[in-house]
Design brief:
The protein has 13 helices and 7 strands. By secondary structure, the chain is an alpha/beta fold. The strands form 2 sheets. A 5-stranded mixed beta sheet has the order 3-2-1-4-5. The radius of gyration is 26 Å and the shape is globular. The protein starts with 7 loop residues before the first strand and ends in a 7-residue tail after the last helix. The relative contact order is 0.08.
Length: 349
Amino acid sequence: MLAEKVDYVIGVDTHRDQHTLAVIAAPAGAVVAQTAVRASARGYADALRFAARHAQGACVWAIEGAGHYGAGLTRYLAEHGETVLEVGRHARVERRLRGKDDPLDAIRAARSGLAAETLSLPRAGQRQEALRVLLLARRSAVDVRRVALVQLRSVIVTAPESLREELRRLSVTKLVQRCSRFRRSGSRTPDELAVVLALRSLARRIEAATEETDELEREIRQHVRALVPELLDEAGVGPIVAAQLIVSWSHKDRVRSEAAFARLAGVAPLPASSGQTIRHRLSRGGDRQLNRALHTVILHRRQHDAATRNYIARRVAEGKTTREATRVLKRYLARHLYRVMQNATPLTT
């Protein structure tokens, strides 16, 4: 346990503008001192000086939200040689029972770190953070394109007959191109003109979102090739899936084992037996974006990889359902991709 290795743990409850700190002594967990600092470079320096005064010995920092509100503090501490652990936020049920208070949350963060059997290191690396924000931006662009395309087709359904007949049989690409070239015309009735303008606006929005998505994907591919290029050699793993795998995994030894990675991905088998039925199911927890990435790979391999199809057929012949066979495949895939990332030699960090 961490309590056997350090003298102090500094818990941090993070917020957008202010962080609350609590120093507790190991192994008893007694509160030594508390303070609050601004979420700024000057505040981070104040936090380090506070720790130097009240935690004179081996110490670690246990930070809630190390990848969000606490990202700046985490980077600052790492640059100054401090050991930082990432602790999860407390469940809402516990907060309802025990109350919500920043000093209390800082103490809970410190004691959670103190009681930890294994160390959870924060996500690290400038390229990993770059991948995370690029994925976020691309996901937003994809959502904009999808919504605009649905709205475009909806407008066509209720459009005047002349427009509907012209547009309804076009493919998506040709439909967007045709609608984006619409112009005002004095020969159109007011309701037709309104429909034409709406179609043009939606089509141009789709084109802009598509261009943005392609640009972001090219940038994501470059970062993936610099970090774990081996992932792109795996069947069904494209740049977007590879980027999500890297973001969730972050760096070597952050996730302690392939079993922990499977648990993080929500593909670790959970017992679901009852009576004479003995079976397992997938977890509904974990990182859902990582889970989605693994699911995307499995869908691709089920369609294009003969070995995957043969494996599922063999399992089904043994009495398993297709869903159960897929569960086993996801667990295997998590193990394999974890080892690929752990053994990769990045071109740069």
